Structures are given as C-alpha cells and as structure tokens.
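Posting for a labmate who doesn't have an account.
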Amino acid sequence: MYLLLSDSSEQTLRFQGAVGGFFVTDKKMVKGLRLWVEENPVLCTSTFFDGTKFRLINSIAENLMKKGFTLVELMIVVTILGILAAIVLPEFQGHATESRESSAKSSLHAVRAQIELYKMQHNGLAPGYIGAIQAPLSSLYNQFIGTSTITGMSQASKTPSGSFLYGPYLTTMPANPFNNLPDVKMVPSGTTDFSTAADDSTGWLYQKETATFKINKSGTDSQGDDYVDY
C-alpha cells in the first residue's frame, strides 16, 4: 500500500510506501489517477499529513500506474501477429495436407495387400464376387471385415465358423483421410481412367474386375500427382 501525496502544482503525484517512494509525472497518468481517486472514495480515505492532503489507496493504484498500450502500439502488435500468421498458417496447412496424403497411401497399401490375400485364399476370386456373380455392396464389406466361404459368400460375423472359414481381412474399413468416409463406390468394368469416377462422394473406389482399389479424391496432391494415381 502507498500514500498518494498531492502537491500544489497538480502536475506530479508522489507515492510513498513503507520501503520507499516514487513520482508519477506523466500528465495523462496524473489526471487519470486523480480521477480514479475521486470516483472511488470507497477505496480511499482522506485526512491530512504534515499539512499535506493525502489519500491512502490499495494496490489497485500500482496497476493503474502501469502505462497501457497506445493505439499505435496495438496496431503494431496486430500487424506483427498478422505477419506471423501469414507465415506459419500455410506451413501448418501444408504439413496437415502431407499427413493426410501419407495416411491415404498407408491405407491403400494395407487394403491392397489384403485383397491379394483374399484372392489367394479364394482361388483367384477377387472381393466383389460370389462365384461368377457380382456381389451386392453389403457383401463386399462383409468380405473385407467379416468372414467368407471359398466361393465368396460372406457374413458379418468376424468369427470363422462352418464353411465361413476365411477372414476377416480388415478390422474395419479405413476412412478416407480427406473426407473421413469409409464407404466404397464401385467403378464400372472397362474404366481405365479412374479420375473420371473420382467425385469425393465416398471414401474409396473399387473395380472388382481388376481388383483395383483407389482413393475417391479428385485433384492433385502437394507434389502435383493425381490422387487416383496413388
């Protein structure tokens, strides 16, 4: 706590504490402190000390004496923050994109490896078939994450039983890291340019005739490569 001592010039404030004192000479601060004292009588007491009027104020006075930012200083700070954001944000976004690209490649590698294993265990038959007949999409999912027979008939159960001896090949269908979708869009037979099928509406693209599994992502990546060429 300090004694706020007023002088006759009204241009200076002297604060006296138990361990020393100091002066405030900034005109704006002097005016502001005097106004604060007048408007906060509850926090102050008035008396006389050696013929000089003083007011006893608490530690709030110390905070008030700290000079605040001017408008110019605030504008400078905002400008610096804007410049830093302009530098850091694109870098952060670039790393985030590269991370998604790496995740997509990892998922594709895992699924493609399991497709090859499925074919090996089903006498060359690719997922998407029951015998020589096209399987419905629900059966395709079960062929990946459930169990199946040698002819491709599948069930949701992950526990091999009876003739459903094969699988599961995946714990769950991975999500496309760009749209978080795990579902599959079937690509018609004869399609060789998968970019014509890519529309971001599902997580993945699959062509059963060629057992080709790709990401359903249009456009190019950070290296300029088509996503469907992953």
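Reply:
Got it, the structure tokens are right above this. Residues 8 and 52 are 9 Å apart (CA to CA).
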